[in-house]
Write a structure and sequence with these properties.
2 domains, 11 helices, binds magnesium ion, elongated, alpha/beta, 33% helix, Rossmann fold, 4-stranded antiparallel β-sheet, binds adenosine-5'-triphosphate
């Protein structure tokens, strides 16, 4: 037992994968999936982990949920070491990994849940009532007695979720919980996640959907190539990348001198230039309220086709800025 009061805490967690390939599997390739991850998640919070494909999100989720051993560092969930106290932790945590694995296809959704309820040691008297309640909660009641092999991808995802919360875990790990769900089911899943938090469950969630992270997670971390590159609230991350406001100017190409003039405007922290077919878009990250679309227009008088828009810096902007910086 450690002195940590956080629901989840990691200290310098690393994970290396050695895999063999080539002639007679003589070549060993080493992947450093996690290169020293430090995180802390308060009890009862929803914590979001974002990051590009291969960043290490699933690896970290598996380590925290005792499925995978770290190579180095330490990780604690509910104050208990995920390596030495795995047995203690397992009944108290839930894990939802997306995909086909982990469900029994030949039996029904309800029978799957009965199997896992028994595995988790749920008393038989409570079992049926709990399964009914959970099926209702994930909107699978009407399909409960059909074999899982007949389920759509979204239905399987809901059954994974049902399985993950069946035993009332105190900490729930969700790895891309809404992947493959239609918009209505994804929204219901987010609602379910919020209701779990209202019940006091701590949630650790990975997602590729920026709006989902923004909507659900007061605290976020961005993982890139096995390292945490930022960790904060969305509001503070916006400041970190250079401002709350974003202006977009689109025209049929800009001169370097025009871009330089925009760069000299006070409060412009960054300009990203992208080609969109025949048009070029300049995205300006703005720190202050002083710069307005008209100031941008005034510096680009030779473009009758110019369009300038103002919007709030989105989490997607922040994410792309930070992940791009990391790549350089
Ligand atoms: N069992 C394994 N053996 C070898 N390498 C692995 C294994 N599992 C993961 N990796 C490697 O570790 C790195 C991190 O993978 P991980 O699945 O954690 O990424 P991720 O952030 O979840 O990506 P995605 O967004 O695509 O789900 C990748 O380079 C991956 O190839
Ligand atoms: Mg993953």
């Amino acid at each position: 037992m450690s002195a940590t009061s956080f629901a989840i805490e990691t200290r310098g967690v690393t994970r290396v994968f050695d895999s063999r390939k080539g002639f007679l599997f003589r070549e060993v390739s080493r992947t450093e999936a996690l290169k020293g991850v430090d995180l802390a998640v308060e009890q009862g919070a929803i914590f979001g982990l974002l990051g590009p494909n291969g960043a290490g999100k699933t690896t970290l989720t598996k380590i925290l949920s005792t499925l995978l051993l770290p190579t180095g560092g330490r990780a604690f969930v509910l104050g208990h070491d995920v390596v030495t106290d795995a047995e203690w932790l397992r009944p108290r945590i839930g894990l939802v990994l997306g995909g086909e694995r982990g469900l029994y296809n030949r039996i029904s959704g309800r029978e799957n849940l009965r199997y896992f309820a028994d595995l988790y040691g749920l008393p038989t008297a409570e079992r049926e009532r709990r399964i009914e309640e959970i099926l209702e909660r994930v909107d699978l009641s009407s399909a409960a007695d059909r074999r899982v092999e007949e389920y759509s991808r979204g239905m399987k995802q809901k059954l994974h979720l049902a399985r993950g919360i069946l035993h009332r875990p105190q900490v729930l790990f969700l790895d891309e919980p809404t992947i493959g769900l239609d918009p209505k089911s994804a929204r219901e899943t987010r609602k379910l996640v919020r209701s779990l938090v209202a019940d006091g469950v701590t949630i650790f969630l990975t997602t590729h959907y920026m709006f989902e992270a923004e909507e659900l997670c007061p605290q976020l971390a961005i993982l890139s190539k096995g390292r945490i590159v930022a960790r904060d609230t969305v509001a503070r991350l916006r400041q970190l990348v250079g401002g709350d406001r974003t202006l977009e100017a689109e025209a049929y190409g800009f001169e370097d001198s025009e871009v330089s003039a925009l760069r000299r405007l006070p409060g412009v922290s960054k300009i990203i230039e992208e080609e969109y077919g025949p048009r070029t878009r300049l995205t300006l990250r703005v720190r202050t309220d002083e710069i307005r679309p008209d100031d941008v227009r005034a510096l680009l008088p030779d473009h009758p086709e110019l369009e300038v828009k103002e919007r709030r810096t989105s989490l997607e902007d922040v994410y792309l800025d930070l992940v791009e910086e990391e790549a350089h």
